[in-house]
Amino acid sequence: MKHIINLYESINSTARNNSDCPPVVLPEEIFFTISIVGVLENLMVLLTVIKNKNLQSPMYFFICSLAISDMLGSLYKILENILIMFRNMGYLEPQGSFETTADDVVDSLFILSLLGSICSLSVIAADRYITIFHALRYHRIVTPRRALVVLMVIWTCCMGSGITIVTFSHHIPTVIAFTALFPLMLAFILCLYLHMFLLARSHARRTSTLPRANMRGAVTLTVLLGVFIFCWAPFVLHVLLMTFCPADPYCACYMSLFQVNGVLIMCNAVIDPFIYAFRSPELRDAFKKMTFCNRYQ
């Protein structure tokens, strides 16, 4: 985010006086390469679901929503690198009106990626909950049309929230609201998890174990959620520390890892498609068929 980076640079000289931790600087080629791979992988997920009617179900619609979020996160870094390259070549006026507008658009993609990931993981958790404990009524409750309507509402809200956050990003209440979404999403999913496992335990005592396919989906969600937390939590913590203790030596030492946290975010987009393919035999077979057909057509 431009506003976060500018704030980081403005306080960096003060923080450096109180900390012995030099900033960790990574080559832009690393960000660019990881971003390209992330875009291509998630684009392949989308194309696979679009081309295979067997995969056009609510569960895969929600997975596609998460793939779009990951792709936007990767696309953000690609566009940012292109803007930096044009500015260094003299095609863009530094701090000019076009660059400022372009930065706001790119920042909106970044925020949209995070908000989209949070909402997509939450709706996947709700879908898994209904799949496990309302299996007989699942297809009446979660229809493809309802799933698409839910996703349209989610992405409309995410776009509006993203524009608002970027517009008012210099205000502390905006930062607090932005970072609060992360623990709120975790609390929602953990509540579903707790209820799921308590009901699963009770169900297993009364009857047999739950269907393996349903539990496989819950495990997949657990892995996706774990990767998301691991990749995004350091950045969210960075924003909080930068807002509330920018000059503290311990905070400054952590903030020296800003670019490392950025790489973790980019890696999230690369890892998720492997999780889909590893955990879903249907999607894995569709990947293979699409790759095979494209190779020999």
UniProtKB/TrEMBL annotation:
<keyword id="KW-0675">Receptor</keyword>
<keyword id="KW-1133">Transmembrane helix</keyword>
<comment type="function">
    <text>Hormone receptor primarily expressed in adrenal cortex that plays a key role in regulating adrenocortical function. Upon corticotropin (ACTH) binding, facilitates the release of adrenal glucocorticoids, including cortisol and corticosterone. In addition, MC2R is required for fetal and neonatal adrenal gland development. Mechanistically, activates adenylate cyclase (cAMP), the MAPK cascade as well as the cAMP-dependent protein kinase A pathway leading to steroidogenic factor 1/NR5A1-mediated transcriptional activation.</text>
</comment>
<keyword id="KW-1003">Cell membrane</keyword>
<keyword id="KW-0807">Transducer</keyword>
<feature type="transmembrane region" description="Helical">
    <location>
        <begin position="147"/>
        <end position="169"/>
    </location>
</feature>
<feature type="transmembrane region" description="Helical">
    <location>
        <begin position="175"/>
        <end position="200"/>
    </location>
</feature>
<comment type="similarity">
    <text>Belongs to the G-protein coupled receptor 1 family.</text>
</comment>
<keyword id="KW-0325">Glycoprotein</keyword>
<comment type="subunit">
    <text>Homodimer. Interacts with corticotropin (ACTH). Interacts with MRAP; this interaction targets MC2R to the plasma membrane. Interacts with MRAP2; competing with MRAP for binding to MC2R and impairing the binding of corticotropin (ACTH).</text>
</comment>
<protein>
    <recommendedName>
        <fullName>Adrenocorticotropic hormone receptor</fullName>
    </recommendedName>
</protein>
<dbReference type="InterPro" id="IPR000276">
    <property type="entry name" value="GPCR_Rhodpsn"/>
</dbReference>
<keyword id="KW-0297">G-protein coupled receptor</keyword>
<feature type="transmembrane region" description="Helical">
    <location>
        <begin position="221"/>
        <end position="244"/>
    </location>
</feature>
<keyword id="KW-0812">Transmembrane</keyword>
<keyword id="KW-0564">Palmitate</keyword>
<feature type="transmembrane region" description="Helical">
    <location>
        <begin position="59"/>
        <end position="79"/>
    </location>
</feature>
<feature type="domain" description="G-protein coupled receptors family 1 profile">
    <location>
        <begin position="41"/>
        <end position="276"/>
    </location>
</feature>
<keyword id="KW-0449">Lipoprotein</keyword>
<feature type="transmembrane region" description="Helical">
    <location>
        <begin position="30"/>
        <end position="50"/>
    </location>
</feature>
<dbReference type="InterPro" id="IPR001671">
    <property type="entry name" value="Melcrt_ACTH_rcpt"/>
</dbReference>
<dbReference type="InterPro" id="IPR017452">
    <property type="entry name" value="GPCR_Rhodpsn_7TM"/>
</dbReference>
<keyword id="KW-1015">Disulfide bond</keyword>
<keyword id="KW-0832">Ubl conjugation</keyword>
<dbReference type="Pfam" id="PF00001">
    <property type="entry name" value="7tm_1"/>
</dbReference>
<feature type="transmembrane region" description="Helical">
    <location>
        <begin position="108"/>
        <end position="126"/>
    </location>
</feature>
<dbReference type="InterPro" id="IPR001168">
    <property type="entry name" value="ACTH_rcpt"/>
</dbReference>
<keyword id="KW-0472">Membrane</keyword>
<feature type="transmembrane region" description="Helical">
    <location>
        <begin position="256"/>
        <end position="278"/>
    </location>
</feature>
